[in-house]
Write a structure and sequence with these properties.
This protein is mainly alpha-helical and 394 residues long. The chain has one domain (1-210, 219-373). It has eleven helices and four strands. It has a four-stranded mixed beta sheet with strand order 1-2-4-3, with helices on both faces.
């Protein structure tokens, strides 16, 4: 499906995502098949290889309702409790307009401007600069930001980040990612279960078999050695299938995450009409988004995930440089380069790459007398103020 515009790209991405999720479900059954192979070998190691392959397939078909039901139960549990789990991990707490009028108004204005239902608003008290969206339906949708983000970014930059998260909700990215993490978790859980069970049992099982073979006749020994070779082959095949299913589940999950960040950045610009705000927000967040104690699944939901993988193969997000380059090329923004925050040491003379930002605005966690932030009102960009008709800067 060729994609030429933003909405066509979104539709194309949704189709690819559905296919990837279907592939994740297939991997669950691959895991079941590998487990059936191991169980059949453990029960009887004196059969030819084709016997194990056929009987294991029959086992998968026979237990299909149970394996499907177990996966569905896992999804149902996560459906109702995933927000509580995420909040427990990150420490996110609900806030109201009275507690956070600045943040609440910015989010509400964006929702009103596009007719989007207002999600819940949560704050994580952390110096990290990050935000994420969660929820599987309108009643569950929530946007969470850190106190560090509120203190380091100005109104327009926060508005851009909120637009990024709202785009994830509008495009169905949140549901896709939560489901992908759940299914990948099922695959990972069974992989670990199989490996632990098999290797814990393997020593005693192998020792018993060797003891029983030693008392057999030479012809019987020959037949059993042949059958033993088939059993070893099946065990290696099962272990390889489990490892491959786990690896593919992780790659699919990460591919889903990476493919959506560019579209969320573009959606933010469409909402705010301010590419420079999205670019400067990304530059400030760059390498400052690590949430202590957060699991990898939570970090995948964030605006930026500083945790890097091997040769970017396991990176959950495109690099900030790639995202900024896309905004410059397609949205006409201007890149100031990496930015040093006001509390970080800057090296060398002031320049676009080490410019010192104004002190953060006082937030709800600031001490009295810390009102050293910039004067109220939106900052000037290269084309002047970028205040949209729906923007409010209280």
């Amino acid at each position: 499906m060729a994609a030429y515009g933003l909405y066509t790209h979104i539709a194309s991405n949704k189709l690819r995502s559905v296919l990837l999720l279907a592939g994740l479900f297939v991997l669950v059954y691959v895991m079941v098949y590998a487990g059936a192979l191991l169980i059949e070998v453990i029960n009887d190691s004196r059969r030819p290889a084709d016997y194990y392959l056929t009987v294991a397939l029959y086992d998968v078909i026979r237990t299909l309702p149970y394996s499907t039901g177990a996966a569905a139960l896992w999804i149902v549990i996560a459906y109702f409790f995933h927000q509580s789990i995420v909040d427990a991990v990150t420490g996110g707490e609900d806030v109201t307009r009275l507690q956070q009028p600045r943040l609440y108004n910015l989010l509400e204005n964006l929702c009103i401007s596009r007719g989007i239902p207002m999600p819940k608003l949560k704050i994580v008290e952390s110096p990290a600069l990050n935000a994420y969206a969660t929820g599987l339906n309108r009643r569950q949708y929530a946007v969470t930001v850190t106190s560090g983000l509120l203190n380091a970014l100005d109104d327009q930059e926060i508005e851009a980040v909120l637009g990024h998260e709202l785009t994830h909700i509008r495009n169905g990215d949140v549901q896709m990612m939560v489901i992908a993490v759940i299914i990948a978790g099922v695959v990972g859980f069974f992989a670990e279960l199989f490996f632990r069970s098999f290797f814990n049992f393997n020593y005693g099982w192998g020792y018993g078999r060797r003891g029983s073979w030693s008392s057999s006749s030479s012809s019987d020994n020959s037949d059993r050695k042949s059958s033993g070779g088939a059993a070893i082959f099946i065990v290696i095949l099962a272990v390889a299938l489990i490892a491959l299913a786990w690896l593919l589940s992780q790659l699919v999950r990460l591919a889903l995450s990476r493919s959506r960040e560019f579209l969320a950045d573009a959606g933010s610009v469409e909402l705010t009409k301010n590419p420079d705000a999205m670019i400067s927000a990304l530059r400030k967040i760059e390498n400052r988004g690590e949430l202590p104690g957060a699991t990898s699944a939570v970090m995948e939901l964030c605006v930026d995930n500083p945790r890097e993988g091997f040769s970017d193969l396991f990176a959950t997000h495109p690099s900030v440089a790639q995202r900024v380059q896309a905004l410059v090329q397609y949205a006409g923004g201007h890149d100031p380069g990496p930015l040093a925050l006001s509390w970080e040491p800057a090296t060398g003379p002031p320049s676009a790459t080490n410019a010192r930002l104004p002190p953060p605005r006082p937030g709800p966690w600031s001490k009295p007398g810390d009102d050293t932030g910039p004067p109220p009102g939106p900052p000037e960009g290269p084309w002047g103020s970028h205040v949209g008709p729906w923007s409010r800067h209280d």
